Amino acid sequence: xxxxxxxxxxxxxxxxxxxxxxxxxxxxxxxxxxxxxxxxxxxxxxxxxxxxxxxxxxxxxxxxxxxxxxxxxxxxxxxxxxxxxxxxxxxxxxxxxxxxxxxxxxxxxxxxxxxxxxxxxxxxxxxxxxxxxxxxxxxxxxxxxxxxxxxxxxxxxxxxxxxxxxxxxxxxxxxxxxxxxxxxxxxxxxxxxxxxxxxxxxxxxxxxxxxxxxxxxxxxxxxxxxxxxxxxxxxxxxxxxxxxxxxxxxxxxxxxxxxxxxxxxxxxxxxxxxxxxxxxxxxxxxxxxxx
Length: 291
Fold this sequence. Notes:
With about 290 residues, the chain is an alpha/beta fold. It is about 35% helix and about 15% strand. The chain is built from 9 helices and 12 strands. The strands form 4 sheets. Strands 7-8-9-10-11-12 form a 6-stranded mixed beta sheet, sandwiched between helices. It has a two-stranded parallel ribbon with strand order 1-3. Strands 2-4 form a two-stranded parallel ribbon. About 40% of the residues are buried. It holds the Pfam family PfkB.
């Protein structure tokens, strides 16, 4: 739509595109396109039309998942509304999702090379359970806050992590000047190895105990912004898992997130050669998030 309507008013919806909800499956799909095996541990879904779409999406993107269709169960969904002003508002309908996540079998984490956990306020109890399982497994962790605040309970669960700990979150474009301060605050609360903060068109910044790394955003034609952060996470995981320098890792992550914004939802996700070609051919925007 052109502009988000005020209360009790309306606006014409110009396009509707189905996509996967939550960031974990999209990050796994990015990894699958990069030939890295991943397993999504998630709640089940229904055998209704929404569930059929989810199963088809997982199969199309070669994403392995523990989630299965359940007869006579309604599939939860999220409606995300975006306008030309950059407003992106989401409306989740999640009956039973938290209970389903709390019942997920987390034993596969014991053999994982890296763990990724979405940690939104709406599902925090389940996220804490996954964090604790990853700690017991002794695996590196990428925790995605997705813009949610860090609660004292999550900060406590993360403190003194035995392996590599990376926290990812985002700030709005208008608040890009706060990216570095946000990263510093999260590091002081958790002592994470790295905190990565994305800021849309103003790039991303990563902060460790001894280093600060920033990358500018790529110049693209924005088609949508849904799951851009998740695509960024997939690229970030790829570099982290291989032990790349953070600058190179952030650049790949930024390219992955940028291409997600430029391509339609139904198009295949890029492989490594396509991401490298994108990096070498696209101009960068001037202002990095750490500016």
